[in-house]
## 1
Amino acid sequence: MPTADGRALTEILGAFVPIGKGRDWDEVMGMNARTYLVNKENPPRAIRLVDNKQKTKDVLEAVGVPVPPTIEVLRDRRDLADLDWDNLPDSWELKPNMGRQGAGLVNIAERDDSGDGTGWRTGSGRPLSRSELVAHMRRVLDGEFSSGEVEQDWVLLEKLIVPHETLAGMVPQGLPDLRMICYRSEPLLAMIRLPTTASDGRANLHQGALGAAVDLGSGKVTRALFKGEEVSEHPDTGQNLIGVEVPYWNETLDSASRCSDATGLGYLGVDVVIDEDLGPLVLEVNARPGLQVQNVTGVGLATRLRGIDGQHWSSPV
Amino acid sequence: MLVAGLIVEPLLRPLKMPRVARLAVILGLVAGALLALGQFGPDPSASRNWTAAFPVVVATIVIEQFWGSWEQEGFRQALVGALWTTLAAIAAAPLLVSKPITWLAEHPPIYPFVLVAVGVGLSVLIGLYRGLRLSEFIRFRPALSKGKS
């Protein structure tokens, strides 16, 4: 049976293929180890909780973790029919409560006075009539953008996040966010995900966003990775990335470290945005965080985990 | 089959195996149940009919995964994933209806059950492996650089 850290496998493979012979693969955590860790540390009840954005916000707020302010929660079509459109702020964000990876999300940046005067404009300037928004909200309520086997969902209307100028200046468009990987209350690794033109303004590394490693001690960017290559500047804005200090870093670390106790997850990814007015806000807590952060930071999660509690991933099953 | 699957699934949970490994174990057990049905059941052709369901199962999975993948990873990735799944299924389909396999299904002495048992055992062992997957030796190359954060 191969050792759990894959060392025996790398030694055997290293003799035949260029996989990075002599490198310390023991540092890296793969999907198998992550799945084991998720199953071991994250009870199903806690996973169900964080799949529900509004309930997650409730438990986080209860322990003093800042979250995006809720404007309205629409639980069914009756709530939608009763929505007071005139009293909505000029900018807001629409989210499916159980949505994942930004599906069904709409950013409303301003009212649109043209036409009958009841329309809105999105962050990218696209006009949306009230009836188009109502139709979209109905699809959200029907669970069309929701994860799992959800048949019905809620519509969340939240304050539109305005990114802090330090981060906003780095990107051509979109909302940069911070991904912190935590083991219980201990942050292990952190990166900023910066939208690019290629990612169409989304902070999703798989869609072409840029990842920048953040040093946990200082909050400064130490390295950046774009499409698998190390870069020092944002490819669209030309902004230098290395050495940039994330604003409100200590508050951000503090918020991330309190998410484990609040949600019951032992291994988690915490997504934080830095709002111009409100500072760090926890956007989402993820029970199955991805492993790409290791490539961005150049640091393996297994190393960090061992450093926290002596957890040794090479121990036999 | 359903009952066997429903009984086994919770028994696998304490092993904390990945989803694919759990599916492999359940698939092995379902295949064993189909073999038993073919040998001991009233209709010996029942074990052959499962190959007819193969394209339906693959098509359903491709369709179901495609939309989710498009939303999460973009259209190109979704299309590439769907194409590879379809190609793998097309490559596997002739195997499933090949003479040796159908012969095994139609003339099951005791050893196909041994085969299924070995397959299930191997799936459990592979499912307990917590090291890196082969593709991850490529994927995580940038993680091995010495820059610390």
## 2
Amino acid sequence: MLLTADIEKKFQGGVGVQADLRVPDNAAITILFGPSGSGKTTILRCISGLEKPTAGKIVFKERDWTNLPPQRRPVGFLFQDYALFPHLRVRENIAYGTRGRMEIVDRVAAMLKVSDVLDRNPRELSGGQQQRVALARVLAREPELLLLDEPLSALDAATRDHVRSELAQLLRSLRIPAIVVTHDWVDALTLGDWMIVMAGGRILQTGPPQEVFTRPQHREVAAAVGVETVATARLLTRAGGVAMLEVGSAQLAAADPGTDNMEFYVCIRSEDVTLEKGRAQQSSARNHLRGTVLAVVPVGVLTRVIVDVGFELVALVTRQAVEDLQLAAGAEVFAVFKASAVHLIVKGI
Amino acid sequence: MLIGLPLSYWVAFSKWRWKFFVEAVVALPLVLPPTVLGFYVLIALGPQSPVGRWYESIAGHGLPFTFEGLVIASVLYSLPFAVQPIAAAFGSVDRKLIEASWMLGVSNSGTFFRVIVPQSWAGVMTGLILSFAHTLGEFGVVLMVGGNIPGVTRTLSIDIYDQVQGLNYSSAAVTSAVLLALSFVILCTVYGLNRKVWFFAADRRH
């Protein structure tokens, strides 16, 4: 294990956090996923030493960190709003923790493409630049573990997509294990190769992101991740704003992603999938996939229906629909969804 | 300043539950009549007290009615004027910046001088100037502890009192005018600092 953190944290008058977190050695980027208030930031702060657990033990690479002050943990912490020192210029910000080793400042500045703004004030930078400066400042200290608290939430939607793929590339090239806190499932799928889902101060599920999304073990996980169908896809053609993709043995249409990549994750929210008996005559939905029902699982007032259409597709329908369509394992149905309901995420950047 | 800065740091960041007790003690001179404070300081520094005896054994003379004794009394009396604005400024420094400094491996004291003080510069200056200015104008404590020895413990405000007692109005008027002008300049500086109109103005806004 790279990191084990058995953390119990009690708060005055509120729900506490109780989590036994394990990050395997081969997990380069671990996603700590959950809605706000689920305790994921508390866990991150306990690992960094900024917060003291009420009880528990934190072990990183067989070293006991439990009673170490934050200064003595070789951790790089990227704050949500980056926390650059406003009274220092960019260069002094990056050099802050280096004890005067200026050659490393130049090296990380070049790596993060901020060499040309070293003499500016942090205030004068764009959101994306501020994030790179904050990362440079963290890397200049040569940490053994990176902790990123909602690294993309301070950015506007337009820059977020761009910065997200940059961050993914950077984190993969660094070879420093990272733990990323996020509540955005696109972040989770793009950045992570190991995922821990939290809600209400507890860990609900752990595993590779694609598996967590496709096979949520709890209703809370399914609700938290928001999409239940995640499958790998290969691009076949792009024409007229529509991309055709091969997913398992099926083909489906999606909005043109506008990139040259060939490999994608297709993500489909189960609410967006309609089930029909027999092929509809005319419909604006581009995807009509014939399949066999694998399982029918009641979830509160609704029912999850897992259909094998060449890949495993999850649909969320009412109980009434289950009765009307006589849905049961082995039944034949058509799964219908619009091309715009298919969300594509570039795979393996 | 040597006492005020660490004390302010402690007041701003300590999580000790009885902190309010110390805060109240520090703030006492604000409400206590100066003569009361002066009386206790006089007793505390006098030859009967341990502090007074200890000082007498190393310096060869007692503390009351000397310049040193006056300084100690002034520090106590002016402490709230330094501690309150400085602690308030320390407390308003963005917690994230302090934590960022820790996470970059910088100790508490390093963080204090490299982040907290630069971020609360205006508050620190306000505290130092106010406490200095306040020392200029004090009367009761000085009279109690310092006595009124020309050239040693006679302060400006006591000088004015003496002049008026001696019906020497013109001399009192001159000293008063000097004090008035000085106080006004000092307060202008303090208010200007807090509006950030002086030299480092543009840099400090977050």
